[in-house]
Amino acid sequence: MKKLAAWVLVICLLFALAACGEQTKPAEEAAETIAQEPGDAEKEPAGAAQEEAAQPATEQNPEAEAQTEEPVEEPVEEPAEEPAKAAEPYGDSDGVIDRDKVVALFRWMDSMPSDFMFALTFDEIGEAVGKAGHDEQNGDGSTHAASWSDGGSTILLVTFRNKDDAWTCSAVSFSGFSRDEAAEADISAFPAVGSSAPAGSSPVVSVTSEGEDHWTGFKFAVTADVPTRQWFPIVKSGEVRYYCAPNEARADYSDAYITVSFKESEEKINSYQDKFTDLVELDGRTIGGIDMVCRSYQYIGMKWVEFYGELREGVWVSVMTTGVDLTAGTETDALIQSLTFAVE
Fold first, then answer.
1. pTM for the full model?
2. Mean of the pLDDT values across residues 94-102?
């Protein structure tokens, strides 16, 4: 019995040990699976994943690589062309001329409209007087001073400054004569400048300027033969103005011009007559088929010469001039004589 009991006990122990082995195996397999989950059999090993992460993004994304291989070129701005440098005044002349010419040169420059005088170049003055001046550049190169003299104390000094890419007159001074003497100087050999230029000095074109006067309600068209070189028609404030200027950029600032306007009656034209000074009646003219009276006067600090007449009942025309030469045969005279008017 004791031997049988011993064998039963041994057999029970063996069964117990077998049961314990079946319970621990799944736990060990589960632990191994958890350790491998970040890099299971279907995934690359962890080391390979780290190497891939370390590679450039272009190797991971073929489209990104394609984009990288074709870099966008930034537009290259071509350098702006530098404007041609204005030729500086230059003359190897001594600037010595007859005394009478020195005085006449001053009168010629002083008598022209200021816009024209300050647009004169070194070469233009030299051509007008027949000899280049004696040119000296100042220390910093910003100005040039050219002189014409009689070789003694009679001197005309002209300063030139670079303005708008052109070396033009900026100041004039003189010594050895007076303004009274200059006023008597003969300038007939010098070229006519500004409104004194002879008719035909430059080509003319027929220009029709249209506009409306908001005060009267008139719609108008004014036609004139306009010299192309120094006359510029502009419609402004219900009237037509013909500016005489050295260039179009300075036209609106010129103090030499002709103005054409329209009024309902002679009383409207004369509405400021009580403010005129030095009023003088002059010989009339026929302009645009209208017999006009003429007068000169001072008003708002300027001298005016005005022509006016009746276009038709209820429509009067005024042609006012200031700072221009009305002498027969000038461009101004020819322009005025070419005027025609139409008003609705």
1. 0.66
2. 96
